[in-house]
Amino acid sequence: MKNLLKVTLVIALAAGLTACKKNVKDDANADMMTGTTTEMVLQETTVEEEEVVPTQASLGVVHFALDKYNLSAEARKIVEANAKAIKAQAAGADYTVVVEGNCDSRGTIAYNIALGEKRANEVKAYYVRLGIPAANISTVSYGKEKPICYENTQSCWAKNRRADTILTVK
């Protein structure tokens, strides 16, 4: 008896669900036959220009002798190669060049900031002589605050006495 009741409930449930099924094809035909129309609304969208993300490139690093800011022959070659790269990468674009002057860990903070500034300005002046507009070049001195080598050795100190050039093309 219990089984018969379960079978009857399952059949009734299945019949009820089948009766509720909507016939989409018949509904679409009925709309067309009765003259009702379905309106399609198009939403106007505007395409915004993509924001231009500046690209940065680090160029060749210029190294300096102890307590010096003059450009050696080798340093001039590096700056000349950097100037060619700047002209090639920034042709027809808006760009900025930042020259960062750095020193080794010896000396006072004030002395190293001043020396780093002289190094950065010397590199900037050579860029200007090579045809890079001075208005596009800025300088900053980090003194001894941005080392790339942390050992207290001559070779490590030599790596930190440098001017980095960073090109940003907008």
- The CATH topology annotation of the largest domain reads as 60s Ribosomal Protein L30, Chain: A
Helix amount, in percent? 40-55%
Question: Helical element count?
Answer: 5
Q: Give the overall shape.
A: globular
Give the topology string: H per helix, E per strand.
Answer: HHEEHEHEHE
CATH architecture of the largest domain: 2-Layer Sandwich
**Radius of gyration, Cα only, in angstroms?**
37 Å
Low-confidence residue ranges: none
Give a count of the beta strands, DSSP E runs of length 2 or more: 5
For the record, the count of structural domains works out to: 2
Strand percentage: 15-25%
The major pleated sheet works out as: 5 strands, mixed
Q: Indicate the mean pLDDT.
A: 82
Question: Would you state the CATH class of the largest domain?
Answer: Alpha Beta
Which structural class fits the helix and strand makeup? alpha+beta
Could you give the distance between the termini? 83 Å
According to CATH, the homologous superfamily of the largest domain is OmpA-like domain
